[in-house]
Amino acid sequence: MEENVGRGRHGKPSNANASARRELAANRPAKRGQAQNAAEDDDFDADQFLNQDAEYGEPEEPQPDEPQIEESQQPPRRRPQQRPQQPRRDAANEGYGGGPSDMSLLTQYGNHRAVPIWDAEPDDHEVLKRTLRCQASGKKVINIVKPSRSERWFWDPIEASGLEPLTRVNFSVLDYGVIWAFVERWHPETSTFHLPLGELGITLDDVQCLLHLPIQGKFLNHTKMSRGEGADMVSSYLGVEREEIDMAFAETNRVHLKHSTLQTLYTTNQTSAERAIAENKPAHVVRLYRERSVRAFMLHLVCCTIFSNKSSYYADVVYLQYFQDLSCVHEWNWGADALVHLQHYLDHGSAVSTTQMAGYMSFLQGWIIAHFPRLSVWVEAPRYTANMPLNSKVVPGQGHKDAAGYRSSLDNIQTYDCVFNPYDAHRQVRPLINACWFSGWLRCGKLKAKHLPERVLRQFQHVQGIPRNPSMSATPAMNLCEIDRVFTEELELRMIDEEMRGRPVTSPWDTEPGYMSWFYRVSHPVMQPVQAPESPPRPPNLEVLIEAAEARNDPNLMQVCRSVKVEVERAVRDGEAVEETPIHGTLQRILNLLNLILAYRRIKRGRGTRYHTRG
């Protein structure tokens, strides 16, 4: 029969598993949490369900010496356990649970990992306790043996390149749970984290203060490199024989070198330079070995930090081209490239199907500690000085291994838990330069990432208003050459001007009226539904407590609030606080809080009255 036709093999229909398909079509398994409706089961594709969950071989032919059993004589089969069906979501018209209800901003939200987390039941540990495998290689930079600071042949080119801070800012221990919790809140459409407080992002200002990397200069402009090109470069600039290079590329199956190979090249060239000095060889021979050692170290350094990838054991040879001339390394915009590479992996990590996270994990951990110092475990580094990168100021602890606890903490975060701008005391070392205000595309090779400071104005101590659409700053169709030209030639034209920045904040968390209501419509600021707590048990000595309170003549808190409100209103009305001054703003906020308390009390009392009258 036509309805029994299964998967096709070489263009021919197969009748395999026909009875199972009829049974599943009658008992469609549905998603968790919704009631099953038998009338809606007609749409279920049993063939698709079977093929998705198992691989079936060719149908077995009955043996000639075994009698065939008619279908009516077969023993009754156990019906599959029925699960309630989840209706299809019309996101365009209905939005998602917990937001967004307006899909104009987060257009890719249906593929975001926040969706299954919100839909999960409280005991669904497969979703809520799921861990992300984070790849980090910063510890290799800490462990590699470096020459003493007196060896200027090594440290002079490293410091001149602008990459020396990368030797100081790495962590040997990372809190993967808190990293995972922030990856869940990253949205590629805005290149920001979405929190109950609003949006926060990783900016070029964060890069220059936390890492001390240069954020001006040319973007890295490499393209994919062939094995022949890579072999020529490794042979010329690292001094490796072609046969060894071919074996190394074959081992990684790409134009890559293992981190261990780079470490070996770094040390062996140092040894060769020392032997050449001992043998009184010409200075250019010693310089050749030392430059090879510095190049191997630099390639190892950037590939374990800003260009860290999911493999965690190899380096891409394509970056070696930027170390050909050691006197020109500083011309490249290493800070922007670090940000692009990290955002590239954040974009992938926020997708529901991703299981791995890479990028510069020490940088991401440092950003979290700088902006949320009370969220995770860390201590101050004992040898930190004020002129060092801020990432080297802290030593994080291991913390929790899963994101569940951090997820709950971020869902319940308060304004005082966030430090929007943690760099005031560091401005004498890293001032806020024009590049920090650039709004548009950044790029590294073929990767590109949005940099939108207008979405995180509070991080620049300005009141946050409703920002423009990201496509107005970062045009989707802009090609890589145009991205280069805009950043180098039109930087001042693409900066957020004074008018768009708005007024400075009075409190670090200040927003324009209507911003938070807009944000909660277009975003998903809370990851899990709020679970109503159970009513606390009645104290056995409740009557005694009430009598003791009456005997103490405790003050009526509502009456105190009313008295304070009257006094504040009088002070504002009589002009005791001049408008547009900090004290006037403080009084207005106190008055608003008192109004909320008294209004809530009236509503609660009204509900209680209606409840008792029904009784």
Describe the 3D structure.
The strands form five sheets. The chain has a three-stranded antiparallel β-sheet. A two-stranded parallel sheet has the order 1-7. The longest helix is centred in the C-terminal third of the chain and has 33 residues, at 582-614. It is elongated. It contains 23 helices and eleven strands. By secondary structure, it is mainly alpha-helical. Helix 7 (152-161) packs across helix 13 and helix 10 crosses helix 11. 40% of the residues lie in helices and 6% in strands. Mean pLDDT is 83; it is low at 1-75, 80-86 and 608-615.
Number of strands: 11
Low-confidence runs? 1-75, 80-86, 608-615
Task: Please compute the radius of gyration using only Cα atoms.
Answer: 31 Å
Largest sheet: 3 strands, antiparallel
Proportion of helical residues: 40-55%
Q: In percent, how much strand structure appears in the residues?
A: 5-15%
Structural class: mainly alpha
